[in-house]
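Reviewer 2 asked us to include a model.

Predict the structure of this chain.
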Amino acid sequence: MLHQQTPLFLDHVLSARVQKTVQLKMECFQPSGSFKIRGIGRLCLQKYQEGTKGFLSSSGGNAGLAVAYSGKMLAVPTTIVVPSTTPEHVCERMRVLDARVLRYGDVWDESDQYARQYASKHSLSYIHPFDDPVIWSGHASLIQEVKKQSPKPDLIMCSVGGGGLLCGIMEGLYEQNWSDVKVIAVETFGASSLHASVQAGELVSIPAITSIAKSLGARQVSRKALDWAQKHPIHCVQVSDAQALEGCFALANRFRILVEPACGASYAALSTSFPMLQQAERILLIVCGGCGVDLELFREWKTMLHPAGEGPRPVNMVKK
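Predicted model (structure tokens):
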């Protein structure tokens, strides 16, 4: 097992304000910086036990770092293909873990296509960032832990990019006989591929990722994520980039942690008037974390957000 059990925090301030019990599952404290190590670590361990020659993945950040960490811990050579938009400080974190970093393409989709070809040519084990049943089963361990730490929540809130975390949460809920727990899937405007697919009733690709929340930057969610959204009470909520950043600042001020906008988005959505939120008495928020943030970037976001002096825009809420 390459991941760690993470703490479950009670947010006393927000709980008092909304008159509900709000708990935070602190996946930001995983050794790779995000929940990704749960599922990706399980898949890498499986490939290692099968005798792999090396790992290869495509990622602009969190998934790549989880693969790099797994490779370091298992002493397996690792290559990560990243798009041109991946910050150098994120690439350097992968290199510190002895991963080879290749830049290819301007968006993740292009990097992923190249990574698949490269893995096949060099007989390496391709590790998908989110779309693999083994990854989902690894992420399901999050719900197993929560069941040991706390009573059952009425509602779970999580951010959605490619849908790997959502699929793991759903698998965990059904494994633990918590299938009556409702779920809110949070995305930002400009990175809402699940919302687009739910609205269309079929798997679709959004034209481009225009949100600052690059970790949510999958133009198409996994088929399994859409299947779950059509089977279970999963409701899509979108927030603005500004709201996502405010969520990051709130988490920093309250819990002294730095997270990406992809994670701040879910925290921001807690302050909305969405009916499902109002009806719930016990809410669990997955603080998914993120490696693509540091103090310098945090200061840039702060400067970018506050000079305009604008309050948060209304949240667009889409019910399945």
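The chain has two domains: 8-34+134-318, 36-132. The radius of gyration is 18 Å. We have added this to the supplementary material.
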